[in-house]
Amino acid sequence: MARAHNPIDRFYSVIPAGGIGSRLWPLSRADAPKFLHDLTGSGQTLLRDTWDRLAPLSGEQRIMVVTGRAHRAAVEAQLPALADPNVVLESEPRDSTAAIGLAAAILEKREPGVIIGSFAADHVIKNQRLFATAVREAVASADAGYITTIGIRPTEPAVGFGYIHTGAEMIIEGAPSALSVTKFVEKPDLATAEGYVASGSYLWNAGMFIARADRLLEEIGRSEPELLAGLLELADGWDDPATRGPAVDRIWPGLKKIAIDYAVAEPAAAEGNLAVIPGYFDWDDVGDFASLAKLNSGGRKSDLAILGENARVLSDASSGIVISQSGRVISLIGVKDIVVVDTPDALLVTTSENAQRVKAVVDALKLTGSTDVL
Could you give the CA distance from residue 357 to residue 363 in angstroms, rounded to a whole number? Predict the structure, then answer.
């Protein structure tokens, strides 16, 4: 069990554990999403890794998990120290603003003045010390009234991530590396990404947001007042079990689906109310099988990464990644950057170059009604 060590005053960690990670199909499914898998060979799930990173910063009793009703049992099995009042269940996915905003509304009602940090359940982060340093600076920036994010110093011109364009240095006590944000940029093409990295003024957008809960709710209200009204109504009766379920069933499905980048981060940046703390730790959102192959081969393109407890793989002059759950023998001869995912009911074969296109297969399966393998 992770132990709190000098937890940050007034800080509460929030872990949104939603989404199925459709670019990791058929490994990631609706009933076994990405965050419930061990994708790095660490011996535990990405969700548990996230908990272990955050527990020293906030304390185990100050971590809230927002997840789907269908995943409650699996989440609680992974996180036995998770306090029951800190399990927030969505009746259906409504995107990140609703998930994080509801957590903020509940926690602000319980503890006015609380500072929350939202950290995805399915990212891979290495170097706890550097991560903790960035979070502590972000909390100081949030306490000063800024919506704050942590951007990752890019190590390559990645096209699978969004980017943050940084501006001038900000003078914030306790946050010496804080920078202003001029804009957020969607996933670029390779040439554009190369220009971003060469300029030195862009960071990867890691989707981490730290803010005083009241300021976060204020920003949601500016851009999405109806969404805020629904969240506040939910939070008002959240801690009464008699009213919570009916309120969720009545209000939650009608909440607008919108990412927090659009509802909060971009408007706050436009108003000069958003700060970014550069993060110097290794980070990856494991967005597709290409990034998963890189993580598990130590970044060496010549290697073949193999995942699966009883994988039976024979390889000759091949590279890429093989994930085996079927027990079948898989033979690879002379193939480069291959991706093979072999499950009992579905087989995926592609290449690292085409890894981002796996989502299109999931979309096609939905259209054809083949939902039994989703």
Answer: 10
